[in-house]
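Bench log. Compound arrived from synthesis this morning; before running ITC I wanted a structural hypothesis for how flavin-adenine dinucleotide sits in the protein. Inputs:
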Amino acid sequence: MIPPIASNFVAGKSAPQALDHVASLNDDGVNGILNLLGEHYEERPPADEDADAYVSLIEDIAGSGLDCCVSVKPSQIGLDVGDEVFVDNLERIVAAGDDHGVFVWVDMEDYTTTDVTLDAYERLVTEHDGGVGVCTQANLKRTPEDLERLAPLPGKVRLVKGAYAEPKSVSYKQKERVNEAYEDCLELMFERFEGGVAVGSHDPAMIDHARALHDEYGTEYEVQMLMGVREDAQRDLAAEGVPTWQYIPYGEKWFSYFYRRVRERKENALFAMRAVLS
Ligand code: FAD
């Protein structure tokens, strides 16, 4: 069992536990994005196993009637083993999503993986005429150019600030500069993306900016936040009528994810400590 503190950030070790969490979220009008924890496999068998787990998760989601999709990390389904292993596995997952009407997001990892991830996304989203989304990172200097390339495609794009420590040559390092880049990318997306914009951020300033751009351009948008972070804001946005999605990690590899969440913000550490003391 996952200790109560960690269960604020991770929905359980198994798919049924994660789906139970989505059911309670859906009651509050918030949709679920399920992510089976796992990354950087160096051998093919665990990558294939996790791809199989996503296919069966997609079947479970379709049978559940829940408002829920999935999000997959490239290195979890074989990118570190070889580009073709990643693409084969992603193809299987996207085909299952297409068969069952379940949307598939592709997370973005460090800058060395951007080209192969976007190439695979472009091919699959075109072949399936939608049903797939990809994440882009505002801290990377290349992202505005990538967004221009992605704009005419039928899928969806999630914009995040970027979670990886990238070299200075390819990325913005200062928080203010990343925020500025995020706002510029949002502007480009609201102007150009007819299929809508996914705002992957907890930052009230970025969400306000998206709201203002929606008023200006009329482009639809959704907000995506992590489980355990600003959950009141997630419910408030949903109540306001903004499509709101919670990214929900689950699985046996919960500890390292939980540890990362606690380390990255003082608020999360205090939150965890309060939960222990109460
Ligand atoms: P920050 O700059 O971290 O915070 C800005 C403000 O937001 C803070 O000042 C505060 O007001 C508020 N805030 C943030 N966290 C908290 C908190 N814990 N409690 C209260 N207020 C808070 N990164 C990738 O590189 N690849 C991915 O595929 C990817 N997918 C993601 C999917 C989702 C749905 C989300 C939400 C994030 C994803 N990320 C991904 C992570 C992302 O890149 C950022 O590292 C992360 O979201 C932190 O940036 P932020 O925009 O939330 O704002």
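What the model suggests: The radius of gyration is 18 Å. The first helix runs from residue 15 to 27.
ITC booked for Thursday regardless.
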